[in-house]
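Justification of computing resources. Each target in the renewal requires a structure prediction run like the one illustrated here; the chain below, 208 residues long, is used simply to show the kind of job we budget for.
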Amino acid sequence: MRVIIVLYLVLFVAITACDQQPKEEKLKIYGRSEVSDAGDTIYHKIADFKFVDQDSAWVTPETFEGKVYVADFFFTSCPTICPIMKTQMLRVYDKYETNPEVMILSHSIDPKHDTVAVLKEFAERLGVKSDKWHFITGEKDDIFKLGQTSYMVAATEDGSEPGGYVHSGAFILVDKERRIRGFYDGTVAEQVDKLMTDIDKLLKEYEK
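Resulting structure tokens:
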């Protein structure tokens, strides 16, 4: 009888321990949200856009349909944080190069200099595939507005700054519904490690 009681106690403790395992929390959804008349929560989303990439192809939100993507803002002649950011983004590229669910989108904030040809050469120097990592250019004001109002990061001209522009060093994680799920300092390796952990976590959300 004592053996049976002990076995029951062991089983009870094991079941209780399993029930108490903390459930992995979903990533936060950033930006303002509102509740519709039907009671549904409507989250902030990346607005519609249409820019051209290094292959002279149009890039729109439909390009990323069914994908998770990481966005940033840069310019090819940037003398400060951009080289560090691109080195760190290459880590993301290398990890997810063969994963069709993950893409990268880099917005140039210097369209006068960063023509399609310049962006093409830049991508080739990095050794990346254009169907995985899009470098886009377009009307400067449209890019600035998208950065500030959709991605919620700074991107503007500033003659007092090195290179003539000021922009955020953030990497922004966007889910398959165009919602922002994380911000990471693209100049800090530990932050990019966290980004990749969160990408894996976000992909698991879509497996359920």
